[in-house]
């Protein structure tokens, strides 16, 4: 299953945005209002929970400065990646789009498609406010 967020403009350079997304503690400021838990578990990983959803642990898997940051699930139970594709617009402006990719059976995909789409759109909408 692949889901794309909308593309938003952020008032940061591509490099500054990449650095921001590479520092996992910054994700707390991007989370939706219905967050029930956020905890940095190591330098490159965090766990979060949203009300009514299981907790998810993510870690930074890959960084291609300044254009790409890939986060991946730590657990093999729900294998997925969340990729931030960053494009520089000017010295202090960049665009970012999130791509969610995961391997799910069709029943699971139907159940999570709506909540995941809403979640990644919230993340990029909050990035636009940075």
UniProtKB/TrEMBL annotation:
UniProt protein name: SRPBCC family protein
InterPro entries named among the record's database cross-references: START-like_dom_sf
Organism listed in the record: Aequorivita vitellina
């Amino acid at each position: 299953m692949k889901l794309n967020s909308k593309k938003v403009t952020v008032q940061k350079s591509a490099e500054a945005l990449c650095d921001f997304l590479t520092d996992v503690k910054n994700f707390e400021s991007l989370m939706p209002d219905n967050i029930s838990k956020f905890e940095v578990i190591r330098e490159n990983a965090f766990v979060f929970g949203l009300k009514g959803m299981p907790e998810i642990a993510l870690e930074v898997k890959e960084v291609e400065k300044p254009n790409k940051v890939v986060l991946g699930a730590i657990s093999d139970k729900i294998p997925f990646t969340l990729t931030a594709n960053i494009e520089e617009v000017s010295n202090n402006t960049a665009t970012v789009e999130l791509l969610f990719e995961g391997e799910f059976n069709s029943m699971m995909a139907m159940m999570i498609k709506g909540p995941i789409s809403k979640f990644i759109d919230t993340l990029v909408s909050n990035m636009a406010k940075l």
